């Protein structure tokens, strides 16, 4: 729902815009969308949304800023209040719920191939979760350099 809302925001507003989202996945996708190349995605609806987002961001004449905020917090302030309102408006939107954070990280890695520290930082994963994502990526395995064990002097 939030990705669809961001696409609609880019369609509606051509002037400079600040986007605030509580989805780490959406914030990451939007911040990397300009001039991105989209790989094949099995989910046709998601592919259409991402294609439209990449097009809209790449053709934009005015700047935009994407900010990620933690979801479901009781923090005071306009940003937290605005996020609560946006959540209530985005809930009935056309797109199905985003997958859990681990699945979001896997989807993001399939597109952008972040390294382990990048996945940890962006999605607040544990090191073992991030390592599992990278270890199961066939593209990253082609680029992997075998490492020596700790304390080995070649």
From TrEMBL:
InterPro entries per the UniProt record, alphabetical: Integrase-like_N (IPR017856), Integrase_Zn-bd_dom_N (IPR003308), RNaseH-like_sf (IPR012337), RNaseH_domain (IPR002156), RNaseH_sf (IPR036397)
Tell me, what's a Pfam family for it? RNase_H
Q: Any idea where the Integrase-type domain is?
A: 100-141
Which molecular function GO terms apply here? RNA stem-loop binding; RNA-directed DNA polymerase activity; RNA-DNA hybrid ribonuclease activity; zinc ion binding
Q: Locate the RNase H type-1 domain: which residues?
A: 1-95
**Keyword line:** Endonuclease, Hydrolase, Metal-binding, Multifunctional enzyme, Nuclease, Nucleotidyltransferase, RNA-directed DNA polymerase, Transferase, Zinc, Zinc-finger
- Recorded superkingdom: Eukaryota
What name is this protein filed under? POK18 protein
Organism lineage reads as: Eukaryota, Metazoa, Chordata, Craniata, Vertebrata
Q: Which gene encodes it?
A: Ervk18_6
